Design the sequence.
């Protein structure tokens, strides 16, 4: 897999949580699909069966990855659209409350803030940032924190499957069961940007109401294509928001008298024209990953590598990993003591061909290991950090 990624041939790369490298076969699949569309004619009777096959096969594969039937899987461009489009269609009433984890991505948080402003909703904060230890203890602490912060008017809980800043895994299935006991049965929205393609997701994706992911991070697919797994309740109760011809049951004509315009399945949250060739690229990347082992086997490999990095960082003077125990994923966040801002450390390492990133909240550095990471990569990064 590593040898198939041109981006990994001339640098030491630890930014899989931002964007994964695209393997050469996936790039070739994209260009071949584009060529085929042009051969058939981009808007001809001959091209539609080809496009339908591409869309349906991609939907089926992503649904299989999420452990849901295809009618519950909508194709999207990114995590944000996968979160926001169904979120804004949920049935809220003035005075309802949103419970949002304190480690959520600014894009999702901002969407919730604006939604609350427009519909006169209230926002509560779920404290999870401090949970950085044993997974079983973390799981119990999350359930307890939700018990303490749920309100009789709570209508939605927003919680990532894998926190993008600390790297802690959240017990999504347990939270889903917990919310079913609440009188309001709040919807559960899950940002899966860091989980899809890295850790097994079927249990969480099938349990959440909105489980939004992208293909361009840990799945090593092209940017501009992702998906969202939706619960039957969302399909029954949520209205479409951004509307286009793909949302419609009949795209061929405008019907001012119809009260049943939209698909009854996940497609009501798809909008309009998207880049079809990207679908071949993502399917290729997912196939390549599967050839490296099952999701569980790949996760174990990633954890072995992140453990190695975490252990090495712990031994460096002036370096403190955020997590108190070895990471449960490939995200390894850490802090370096001193007055040098994290962004400057990123620049200094980048000048040596070593690529990590800085995060603002909490202020730290983050390095990600994937199955394509090697022990030599880890040794090179640790040596450079030690020199800093």
Sequence:
């Amino acid at each position: 897999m590593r040898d198939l990624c041109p981006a990994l041939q001339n640098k030491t790369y630890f930014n899989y949580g931002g964007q994964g490298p695209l393997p050469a076969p996936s790039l070739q699949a994209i260009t071949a699909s584009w060529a085929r569309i042009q051969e058939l004619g981009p808007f001809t009777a001959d091209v539609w069966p080809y496009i339908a096959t591409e869309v349906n096969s991609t939907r089926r594969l992503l649904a299989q990855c999420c452990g849901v039937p295809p009618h519950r899987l909508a194709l999207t461009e990114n995590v944000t659209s996968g979160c926001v489009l169904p979120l804004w269609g949920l049935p809220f009433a003035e005075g309802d409350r949103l419970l949002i984890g304190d480690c959520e991505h600014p894009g999702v948080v901002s969407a919730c803030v604006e939604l609350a402003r427009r519909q006169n909703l209230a926002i509560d904060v779920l404290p999870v940032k401090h949970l950085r230890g044993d997974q079983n203890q973390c799981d119990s602490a999350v359930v307890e924190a939700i018990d303490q912060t749920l309100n009789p008017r709570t209508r939605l809980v927003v919680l990532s499957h894998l926190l993008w800043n600390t790297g802690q895994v959240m017990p999504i299935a347990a939270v889903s069961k917990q919310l079913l006991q609440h009188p309001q049965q709040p919807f559960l929205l899950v940002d899966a940007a860091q989980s899809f393609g890295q850790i097994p997701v079927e249990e969480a994706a099938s349990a959440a109401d909105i489980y939004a992911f992208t293909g361009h991070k840990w799945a090593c697919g092209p940017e501009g294509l992702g998906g969202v797994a939706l619960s039957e309740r969302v399909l029954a109760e949520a209205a479409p928001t951004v509307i286009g011809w793909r949302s419609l049951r009949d795209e061929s004509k405008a019907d001012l008298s119809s009260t049943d315009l939209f698909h009854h399945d996940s497609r009501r949250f798809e909008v309009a024209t998207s880049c079809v060739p990207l679908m071949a690229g993502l399917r290729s990347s997912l196939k390549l990953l599967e050839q490296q082992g099952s999701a569980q086997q790949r996760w174990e490999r990633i954890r072995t590598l992140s453990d190695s990095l975490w252990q090495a960082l712990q031994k460096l003077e002036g370096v403190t990993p955020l997590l108190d125990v070895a990471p449960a994923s490939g995200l390894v966040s850490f802090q370096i003591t001193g007055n040098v801002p994290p962004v400057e450390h990123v620049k200094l390492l980048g000048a040596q061909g070593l690529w990590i990133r800085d995060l603002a909240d909490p202020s730290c550095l983050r390095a990600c290991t994937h199955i394509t990471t090697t022990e030599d990569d880890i040794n090179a990064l640790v040596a450079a950090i030690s020199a800093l």
About this structure: The two ends are 31 Å apart (CA to CA). The mean pLDDT is 97. The domain at 2-19+294-387 is CATH 3.90.1150.10 (Aspartate Aminotransferase, domain 1). The first strand starts at residue 12 and ends at 13.
